[in-house]
Design a protein that fits this description.
This protein is mainly α. About 80% of the residues lie in helices and about 0% in strands. The chain binds ligand LYPLPQDE. InterPro entries: MFS, MFS_dom, MFS_trans_sf, MFSD1.
């Protein structure tokens, strides 16, 4: 991509800092309900499965809105979407602050999920507007990393507020945080000089979607996100903790320590992968395949290990699974570089469905397989035994395999298209030609 005059300017950095602040706030809103589980159980007089419904509703809303959001980012620009997202999250947290029934709480969580869904894709869309190509892979990684710090805001100050002030004031302060995000985004984010490139009137949604989907590079991004990210989500959102504690016999405190390795790995691996992608854009899918190989191999060894795995092996597993988070950001690079600028939002939305869809399916099927084995073993059988986990978590290999097939097919298709345009040769794939932006 040619460097425009406004690229990498002071204004660019202001827009980026404000937009990642909006994303950080969105991740805080996203993760706030999870850390208030015990208080929510009391407030709504809820069972574990009702509590789980709150997370599922939020994830389904998030994943389901990615494509509409991507299309709207291309039509209205990222600024409207980030400010709109902050407004929706504010409404959602207000409703949650006042809610005293499960139904009212779920409506609040629906709004939070919808506002959250509008943020990340818009922030990623701002990067090629404001920065030159070589900076974008690093900034994409940095965006992902900063966003994850939002989880710390939920874990530390929000939990402290919840304990000191109770439910309503704590959730009202989260609503106030989104007001801050709204005002900052409204005042300081701009769609840039390219904003007048938004394509004109009707049928745009269908056309944008079909243009983005027909591009094999978008589908390569979808499958890359699908395959790299889902094991991280499955581990962090649901099955990691019970697998470690009940399956592997690790103490709850050690399990929490092991889960915090995810943040460490993201902080270290993000810049490494970002600079690798910036220096070797022709190696992007190879980098993703290596991470996927490490995830599959580490799971294979842990699940085949006779008895409980030693601590060093569990650490290796978690490091490999955690690499999936930063590796999944490569998928957005495919969306950006294979599509014309007026379709990048839509393509980014499509890509961002991948990992969340794979995670939703896997979380559900693993739970179903655990239940099934318990039923088959008869009454009194342990739900979370190590052997039950071995079979249930093996479902991940099917998803990994399906994702890799999708990646190989779409990568080959992307290469064929590029070869037809004269943009790809086996030499360029080895990085010897000086051409950039291939997979
Ligand atoms: N450093 C890991 C960040 C992973 C981010 C992830 N790939 C992603 O797709 N995030 C979307 C979001 O809305 O957070």
């Amino acid at each position: 991509m040619a460097k425009a005059e406004h690229h990498d300017s002071v204004r660019s950095w202001v827009v980026w800092i404000v937009s990642i602040t909006a994303y950080l706030i969105a991740v805080t809103q996203r993760t706030s309900f999870g850390v208030a589980g015990l208080e929510a159980t009391d407030r709504f007089d809820a069972s574990a499965s009702i509590l789980a419904t709150f997370s599922v509703v939020q994830l389904v809303v998030y994943a389901g809105l990615q494509i509409p959001v991507g299309i709207l980012v291309d039509r209205w620009g990222p600024r409207a979407m980030i400010t709109g997202g902050a407004a929706l999250m504010m409404v959602g947290q207000l409703l949650l602050a006042m809610a005293d029934s499960v139904g009212a709480g779920l409506v609040g969580r629906f709004f939070v999920g919808a506002g959250d869904a509008m943020t990340f894709v818009s922030v990623i869309r701002l990067l090629p507007i404001w920065f030159s190509g070589y900076r974008i892979p690093m900034l994409t990684q940095a965006t992902g990393m900063v966003g994850q710090l939002g989880q710390l805001l939920s874990l530390i100050p929000f939990v402290a507020l919840l304990h000191a002030w109770s439910w309503t004031p704590a959730f009202l302060s989260l609503a106030a945080l989104s007001v801050l995000g709204f005002v900052l985004a409204l005042v300081l984010i701009s769609n840039g000089p390219l904003s007048n490139e938004v394509p004109p009137a009707p049928a745009r949604a269908r056309v944008l979607l079909s243009n983005a989907w027909r591009e094999p590079g978008t589908r390569l991004g979808f499958w890359t996100h699908f395959t790299t990210q889902f094991t991280t989500n499955v581990f962090l959102l649901t099955w990691g903790y019970p697998f470690l504690v009940s399956g592997q016999g690790v103490s709850p405190a050690t399990a929490s320590g092991l889960l915090s390795i995810f943040v460490l790995v993201a902080l270290v691996a993000g810049p490494v992968l970002g600079s690798a992608v910036a220096r070797h854009p022709h190696r992007r899918s190879a980098i993703a395949f290596n991470v996927i190989g490490a995830i599959a191999l580490s799971w294979l060894v842990v699940l085949l290990w006779p008895g409980q795995a030693p601590m060093w092996l569990l650490v290796v597993l978690i490091v490999c699974v955690a690499l999936g988070g930063p590796a999944s950001m490569i998928a957005f690079d495919f969306a950006r570089t294979f599509n014309p600028s007026h379709v990048i939002g839509t393509a980014t939305g499509i890509v961002n469905v991948g990992g969340f869809l794979a995670a939703l399916v896997t979380v559900y099927v693993v739970g179903w397989l655990l239940d099934l084995q318990q039923k088959a073993a008869g009454s009194g059988a342990e739900l979370y035994s190590l052997d039950a986990f071995r079979w249930a978590l093996s479902f991940q290999f099917l998803v990994l395999f399906g994702g890799v097939i999708g990646m190989v097919i779409t990568r080959n298709k992307a290469r064929r298209n590029m070869a037809a345009r004269g943009d790809y040769t086996p030499r360029s794939a080895r990085g010897l030609s000086g051409r950039t932006e291939i997979e």
